[in-house]
């Protein structure tokens, strides 16, 4: 399965193509949203203009009606027959009284019929203890009504008086002296049903409503009972509204409100409509807008899938194949049925792999075989060095007649030569190589035990299983004996220790011999770096073998140690991370 990190996906061609498509389609979606909001705003503003116009005309008509009623009130108030009746009632005979009352009743009935908004018109005359009404004719004085309306004008309130769930107009005929009881009062009761019907007529649709609100919200007149909750919400929030068009939330719905105030009437007329009713004319546009959004998202999904399948996935396969090729896997082939551009690329990629395999067979494998043959040649060159010294030690032991040490030595010698002459493996574990080198050092101690002291540390467990070419340590120890310690007059010292850090393992061999100068060390270092094909003995051989096996950073590194002798570091970049393990006395 092909997997890539999120960072790789973000920088991929697929992500860029998808981002480009989103950038192209996003303005279209934004334009659709803007058009819908623009249409809604225009519809709302047009609705407000229409509603405000209706409310303004309604208040103007209502004001004309009330002005007409007030004019009729004034005419009745100044009627000479009514004033005469009030003053001369006691001197009139019953026939004149009845005739005067009938004339007044006819006058009131005539005034009532001039306006559909008048429910009743009454004249309260306390002097004659009579109330004359266009509806109820002549009756005893209604003391409660007369007392209520007599007290209202002194309050300097609005023209309309709210009493017993209805609206009234009232005018008083005062006597000549201040503080005396009025001669009579003229009261007009408005028809509330006609007012509600008139409010219903200015509604824009069945879901809307309208109502009247007085200054200070002393009373409200609604178009129906269904508007009560909305009116209460309006009364709570209308004062905070900064314009005559605003929204009010009531019972889980938003309502669009328009209001118009009439200073002449001391009334505000308000109309409301649910917000969903405002948006309903745009429902078709809203449906098409969502359909467009859905179609766009489907198009994005289809485009993304197609881009991934036909572009991104084939590219991932090609990139993954190149990565596998870089890791050395050359026996793969990419299968691709469609005869498209990627089919051509895959075909050329497969042909390239075949050519690479052919080149590797001709060049790389031949080079490996030559290196392997060179390694075996180097091993064969190293093996004879120790043979001469071994026979010399055996000769010395036989002359001394020490049979036990001869037996011990020949056993060690046999193990030694069995290790260097076996042909099974070119590489052994480092623990085997160290065991062989330690055996070589023990053999040398037969000769130099009195003059040379040896410190051979234990191999750290982390380094035991590292695979190394055979005979890389023993020749260096042998070189220390032959060129640094063997001819010393003072006591010699040989130290072998180990270090590992990360994927680098180090074997350190150092002595206190004075057989090599700093200049010679520097010259030897140069020879290790610039190795010639004709120079294949000693340390150069070992350095070449390690470098061929482990690559850059591996090989022999020479320096002068604190003992004033030669320090040789065998560095192996084995490619396996491990803990840092220093040797106690390696410095």
Mind explaining what this structure looks like?
It is found in: Cell membrane. One of its GO terms (molecular function) is phosphorelay sensor kinase activity. The chain crosses the membrane at residues 13-36, 285-305. Pfam families: HAMP, HATPase_c, His_kinase. Residues 309-361 form the HAMP domain. By secondary structure, the protein is of the alpha+beta class. It has two domains: 1-303, no CATH class; 412-573, Histidine kinase-like ATPase, C-terminal domain (Heat Shock Protein 90, 2-Layer Sandwich), CATH 3.30.565. Helix content is 53%, strand content 19%. It contains 15 helices and 18 strands. It has helices spanning 6-10, 13-77, 80-88, 94-112, 143-151, 192-201, 228-237, 275-279, 283-326, 341-400, 403-421, 430-448, 474-485, 518-529, 538-550; strands at 118-125, 130-133, 137-140, 161-163, 166-173, 184-190, 209-214, 220-222, 245-250, 253-262, 267-274, 427-429, 452-456, 467-469, 492-501, 504-511, 555-560, 566-573. It has a six-stranded antiparallel sheet, sandwiched between helices. A hairpin with a 5-residue loop joins β7 and β8 (220-222). α9 packs parallel to α10 (341-400), α11 runs antiparallel to α12 and α12 (430-448) runs parallel beside α13 (474-485). The longest helix is centred in the first third of the chain and has 65 residues, at 13-77. The protein is rod-shaped, with a radius of gyration of 59 Å.
């Amino acid at each position: 399965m092909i997997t890539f990190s999120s960072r790789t996906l973000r920088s991929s061609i697929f992500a860029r193509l998808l981002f480009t498509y989103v950038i192209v389609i996003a303005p279209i979606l934004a334009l659709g949203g803007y058009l819908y909001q623009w249409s809604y705003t225009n519809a709302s503003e047009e609705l407000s203009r229409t509603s405000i116009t209706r409310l303004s005309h309604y208040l103007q008509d209502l004001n004309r009606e009330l002005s007409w009623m007030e004019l009729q009130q004034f005419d009745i108030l100044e009627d000479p027959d009514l004033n005469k009746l009030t003053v001369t009632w006691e001197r009139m005979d019953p026939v004149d009284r009845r005739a005067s009352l009938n004339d007044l009743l006819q006058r009131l009935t005539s005034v009532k019929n001039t306006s559909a908004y008048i429910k009743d018109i009454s004249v309260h005359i306390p002097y004659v203890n009579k109330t004359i009404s266009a509806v109820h004719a002549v009756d005893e004085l209604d003391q409660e009504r007369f007392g209520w309306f007599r007290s209202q004008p002194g309050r300097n309130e609005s023209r309309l008086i709210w009493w017993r769930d209805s609206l009234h107009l009232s005018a008083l005929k005062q006597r000549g002296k201040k503080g005396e009881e009025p001669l009579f009062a003229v009261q007009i009761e408005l028809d509330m049903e006609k007012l509600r019907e008139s409010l219903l007529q200015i509604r824009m649709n069945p879901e809307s409503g309208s109502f009247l609100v007085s200054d200070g919200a002393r009373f409200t007149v609604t178009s129906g009972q269904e508007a009560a909750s909305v009116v209460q919400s309006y009364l709570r929030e209308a004062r905070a509204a900064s314009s005559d068009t605003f929204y009010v939330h009531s019972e889980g719905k938003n309502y669009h409100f328009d209001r118009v105030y009439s200073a002449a009437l001391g009334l505000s007329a308000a109309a409301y409509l649910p917000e969903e009713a405002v948006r309903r004319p745009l429902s078709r546009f809203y449906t098409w807008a969502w359909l467009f959004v859905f179609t766009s998202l489907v198009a994005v999904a289809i485009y993304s899938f197609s881009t991934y399948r036909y572009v991104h996935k084939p590219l991932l396969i090609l990139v993954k194949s190149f990565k596998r090729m870089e890791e050395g896997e050359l026996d793969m082939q990419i299968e691709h049925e469609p005869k498209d551009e990627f089919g051509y690329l895959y075909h050329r990629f497969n042909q390239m792999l075949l050519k690479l395999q052919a080149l590797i067979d001709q060049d790389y494998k031949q080079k490996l075989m030559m290196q392997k043959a060179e390694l075996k040649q180097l091993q064969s060159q190293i093996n004879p060095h120790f043979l001469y010294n071994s026979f010399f030690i055996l000769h010395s032991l036989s002359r001394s007649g020490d049979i036990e040490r001869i037996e011990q030595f020949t056993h060690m010698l046999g193990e030694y030569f069995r290790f260097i002459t076996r042909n099974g493996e070119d590489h052994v574990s480092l623990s085997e190589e160290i065991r062989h080198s330690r055996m070589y050092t023990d053999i040398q101690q037969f000769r130099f035990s009195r003059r040379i002291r040896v410190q051979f540390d234990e191999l750290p467990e982390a380094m035991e299983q590292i695979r190394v070419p055979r005979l890389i340590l023993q020749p260096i120890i042998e070189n220390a004996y032959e060129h640094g310690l063997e001819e010393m007059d003072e006591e010699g010292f040989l130290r072998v220790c180990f270090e590992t850090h990360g994927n680098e393992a180090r074997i350190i061999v150092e002595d206190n011999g004075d057989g090599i100068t700093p200049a010679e060390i520097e010259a030897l270092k140069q020879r290790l770096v610039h190795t010639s094909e004709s120079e294949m003995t000693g340390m150069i051989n070992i350095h070449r073998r390690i470098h061929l096996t482990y690559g850059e950073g591996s090989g022999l590194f020479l320096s002068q140690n604190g003992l004033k002798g030669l320090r040789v570091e065998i560095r192996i970049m084995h490619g396996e991370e491990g803990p840092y393990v220093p040797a106690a006395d390696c410095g």
